[in-house]
Write a structure and sequence with these properties.
Butyryl-CoA Dehydrogenase, subunit A, domain 2, Butyryl-Coa Dehydrogenase, subunit A, domain 1, 8 strands, alpha+beta
Length: 402
């Protein structure tokens, strides 16, 4: 395959790079300084806007405003809703260049894409523009205790009471729950229906009485997910998306055509390139010989991942919906991230035990040491590798179900 840009694509790539040079706030350029913060991801736009310092919030608003001028905050959305009506390959190039510059995405793409497909016009008018402006910050309320990978088994109940639903139950692994003021989720509205029916997709204000969020701290001391509890939480029926009891089909719709996983591919390539430079310059020769083949394997795997992402993007561009191909990209990408982190720690020997980014003896600001812990969940979140392998086996290879 020839992945080189056409003249038109090359011109657009240059436009994106010029935009980043001119409009990306300095706050998001100083990646090393931001690694010393306790916000988790270095360039976490939603964290900055919800819980950041005044300087963080100012930078987040400046970035959202710059993106809004071009509709690049959600480039796949139609122009009438604040997007750019961008083609698939233009979206791919945009995401690729943003990832290379480590520029943050703004949130809301999942709920926005859902509304564009299943929402009423009233819902689109009410929710899309405030989401682009950062006034509505979203968390996803899907997983529950005992209903993560088997999401069809969710039990958090929503009972109709006039023009409202009353929700009681618990959600688990609620990413961004501590930095959101709105939640979209799936709730059981008919307990007697078959497993994947009787589920309804709803949006709710996270400040509604009865909603409580408790942090889950990871093995790397990172606050990324939460438990969320619902006690007699009242949600207007007007905030149901799609039909009552048909929420499974809303939640499972292919929502976001611009997503290819290219962010992950570029991020791992940047890590490997930085690792190669460091090993060449600062690693003793005997240790360099121990890891050179392993580092070479990681570089090859990053190139394979990039090609998987390009394949998914090209399928979107041709009007084909990736199925098992997307599972291949997700599974392979999350496992490559784990292997890159392991190789980094191996390259640094006992110095890899240093955790703090500001420790003067921590190689590469302890990136690989921290990633060694943070990437453990990568093969679980977003659909475990076991599920992805099942999809690849049945839909890709045509193997029978066990």
């Amino acid at each position: 395959m020839d992945w080189n840009d056409t003249p038109e694509q090359a011109a657009f790539r240059s436009e994106v790079r010029a935009f980043l040079d001119a409009r990306l706030p300095a706050h998001y350029r100083d990646h090393e300084a931001r690694r010393h913060q306790d916000s988790g991801l270095e360039n976490d736009w939603q964290q900055d806007l919800a819980n950041g310092t005044p300087e963080d919030r100012t930078a987040a608003r400046e970035w959202a405003s710059a993106l809004a001028e071009r509709g690049w905050g959600q480039p796949h959305w139609p122009r009438e809703y604040g997007g750019a009506s961008m083609s698939t390959l233009e979206q791919f190039i945009l995401k690729q260049e943003f990832a290379r510059a480590e520029a943050p995405d703004i949130g809301g793409h999942l709920v926005g894409s859902t509304l564009l497909v299943h929402g009423t016009e009233e819902q689109k008018q009410r929710f899309l523009a405030p989401t682009l402006r950062g006034e509505m910050l979203w968390a996803q309320g899907f997983s529950e205790p005992g209903a993560g990978s088997d999401l069809g088994s969710l039990q958090c109940r929503a009972v109709r009471d006039g023009d409202e639903f009353v929700i009681n139950g618990q959600k688990l692994w609620t990413s961004a729950g501590h930095k959101s003021n709105w939640i979209f989720g799936l709730f059981r509205t008919d307990p007697d229906a078959p497993k994947h029916r009787g589920i309804t997709f709803m949006m709710l204000d996270a400040t509604t009485p009865g909603v409580s969020v408790r942090p889950i701290i990871s093995m790397g001391w990172e606050h990324a997910t939460n438990e969320t509890f619902y006690e007699d939480v009242r949600v207007p029926a007007s905030q149901v998306v799609g039909d009552v009891n048909r929420g499974w089909y809303v939640g499972m719709t292919l929502l976001d055509y611009e997503r290819s996983g290219i962010n992950r591919a570029v991020a791992q390539q940047l890590l490997v390139d930085e690792l190669v430079a460091h090993v060449r310059a600062d690693t003793p020769s005997h240790r360099r010989e121990l890891v050179r083949r392993e580092v070479a394997d990681r570089a090859i795997e990053c190139e394979v991942l990039n090609n998987l992402c390009m394949r998914i993007a090209s399928m979107h561009a041709s009007g084909t919906i990736p199925n098992y191909e997307a599972s291949m990209g997700k599974m392979y990408g999350s496992e490559v991230a784990q292997r890159v982190a392991r190789t980094g720690t191996k390259a640094f020997g006992q110095f890899a035990q240093l955790w703090a980014p500001d420790d003067p003896y921590a190689p590469l600001k302890a990136k690989h040491t921290q990633n060694y812990c943070h990437t453990v969940v990568g093969t679980i979140a977003g659909g475990s590798s076991e599920i992805q392998r099942n999809i690849i086996a049945t839909r890709g290879l045509g193997l029978p179900r066990g």
